[in-house]
Amino acid sequence: MIILNSALKSFTLHLQGGLCLPVIEDARLNVAPGECVALTGPSGTGKSTLMRMIYGNYLTEGGSIMVGDLDVATASPREIIRLRREVLGYVSQFLRVVPRVSAVDVVAEPLLALGTPSAEARDRAEALLDRLNLPRALWSLPPMTFSGGEQQRVNIARGMVHPFPALLLDEPTASLDAVNRAVVIDLIREAKGRGAAILGIFHDAEARRAVCDREIDVGAFAPQPVSA
Amino acid sequence: MNQAVTPDVAQAPGAGLQQAAMPATDDLPLLSVRGLSKSYGDRLGCADVALDVWPGEVLGIVGESGSGKTTLLRALAGELTPERGEALYRDAEGRVEDVLRLPEPARRRLMRTDWALVHQNPRDGLRLGVSAGANVGERLMAVGWRHYGNIRATASHWLERVEIDPGRIDDRPRQFSGGMQQRLQIARNLVSAPRLVLMDEPTGGLDVSVQARLLDLLRGLVRELGLAVIVVTHDLAVVRLLADRLIVMRGGAVVEDGLTDQVLDDPQHNYTQLLVSAALRG
Amino acid sequence: MTDTAYNFAYLDERTKKMIRRALLKAVAIPGYQVPFASREMPMPYGWGTGGVQVTAACLTPEDTLKVIDQGADDTTNAVSIRKFFEKTAGVETTTVTGEATIIQTRHRIPEAPLTEDQILVYQVPIPEPLRFLEPRETETRRMHALEEYGLMHVKLYEDISRHGHIATTYAYPVMVEDRYVLDPSPIPKFDNPKMDDCPALQLFGAGREQRIYAIPPYTKVVSLDFEDHPFERGSTGEACALCGAVDSYLDEVITDDAGGRLFVCSDTDFCRSRRNMVALAAAPYEAAE
After folding, report:
1. How high is the ipTM of this complex?
2. How many Cβ atoms from other residues are within 10 Å of residue C288's Cβ?
3. In what order do the strands lie in the sheet with A2-13?
4. At residue C287, does pLDDT exceed 70?
5. Which one of B112, B134, B139 has the shortest CB-CB distance to C157?
6. DSSP C170
7. What distance, in Å, lies between the first and last C-alpha atoms of chain A?
8. Active-site residue, C58 included
């Protein structure tokens, strides 16, 4: 479902005189439906970068990144938008939201984008927030003032309210207490059960052990130093 | 002619609005611009600009002043005539025409029905001397609505839609705050269920909290009504919130384009990198 | 006879020719405002110079001229203009509507139905019906050319929202032959229906604004309105105290300082002719006095 083949990326920093920073070289991986694969490696080695490349947030210079039938590396912006709407979900580390939208509306939005009737979208959003133990009083408030853990739960709910066939999870259990960590683990298991291909970054070893079938060390994709 | 607002259709409040549940998965763009060029004597306005907009998406055009983004918008709106280029628009019946070559009556009719232009300064897009209700109702009356009760009810409905108290329907825009005037301008434009909205710095001159409210409103309306929007701005926070895709202009030319989050998070062109790094982090 | 110091009807022949050309154009495009080179007249702007120029261009020595101001033949302005043409054109003049071939009027249409042999010349202060909403001449011309009349209904909408009904009582805008919106000059809206399908030729002259327009005979003239606020001619519900007419436009006359008032026909000739008929019939026509 998510297949990387020789993916390549570097950054060219024009503001630093055109300094070229290679970050990912010859990345390969294959996540099958129903699998959950963890990206591991010390921080700064490119785990988040790779996720962003898969999501289309970062441009990929070479190789291919197949998500389902689409090669994200060469896809047009509209194809990527469609992919993100229908196929590929992403739970990032940080929740970036529009100032005044309420938590339940944030979570319902992906469903509305798919044409789900608004009453049903709200119901499903509320059910998920309930499951994640977000206090009902917060549902109609904008998440901007929430605690880190509360924001993270809104984030997760938004990323999982639609049963995406492919999911990218960046530290989904960070900032969560044991109870909610368990809820998230359950959600991931359910997603796997319905055939979703999941790629995740889990600093939380326990969560990693609980849901991941394999681990891939991103260090393997570090660019080889070029001798001077 | 926009079928949704002719008087033959039921004139209940809310009638005349197109509801699109999701962004259309049309493969065909609503608007295709190619080779658009405009100079002011020796000074270059914009050169050889190309872009496409699909139904139900927001295209952001960013750049600093002098980038040509405003020239581009004004050329599309018919406020100035480019030397070269075409802007192919696909209407509701699927017919394609070059709006730059439309005769003036057709162009003006287009700008009152299928297209809308939201000015940066709401005073440029409103009639300050008539009531809010008349401002919103004008487009309806221009396409032949002749029932006062229906016009008023529809205007009232739209005021609510843009979060203006309908009780102020008879007040003059002069009595409104800047943010309210801007929302009134939006209502005035959207009442004719346009398919393409051109926006020039929609949040310019507004307080930050007022901006947030307006952007929110716009996002909601875009999604509910399936609008295609071209928004021109220098404010990257606005495009991040509002736009699906982004075009970066500098010195009259397009230097980069792509997904909004990709262009802002992984800018390729040196000017874009400069622009992004210079933006104040909120 | 003509005072030999003046050309016939005061204006030189070239000027009359220019005005007739404008009139022909106006008649060919009902309701369209034709610019014309308005001349200096021996009366100030605002006193009927447009109407006088149109009348002068139309007059022939065989014509019989009637001049009314607010319906009356005997007000100062009507008298002055009538004398002007007696002196400069030497034409017959009359106060009887039915005997006139040209009627110049300020702010009223005669009550007596007009015929195909008559020309009605209106004095117009502001020819542009959109002027109060759109001050730019460039813009109003474009609006007429492109039939963009939404703004006209905006004005009526504003009236209803402010007063509960269309508050315009005179100079009430009309649509001519489903094409041009026209300001009929400050006639009371009571008179508007008379313009529709009228056998006479109706000409409009604005001297200061330098515009001429026309409604040819038997032309469709519809007063603007809303479906749920249809045009109403309006009336006082009173009868004329002198002749008893209930269907004529009435002036209100204050008779004393105790609030006493009378309503009398604004059209003096109409009222007089009705009273004459009463006398001729030698029997009360209606309860008068």
Report:
1. 0.88
2. 14
3. A19-31, A2-13, A62-67, A70-71
4. no
5. B134
6. B
7. 40
8. no
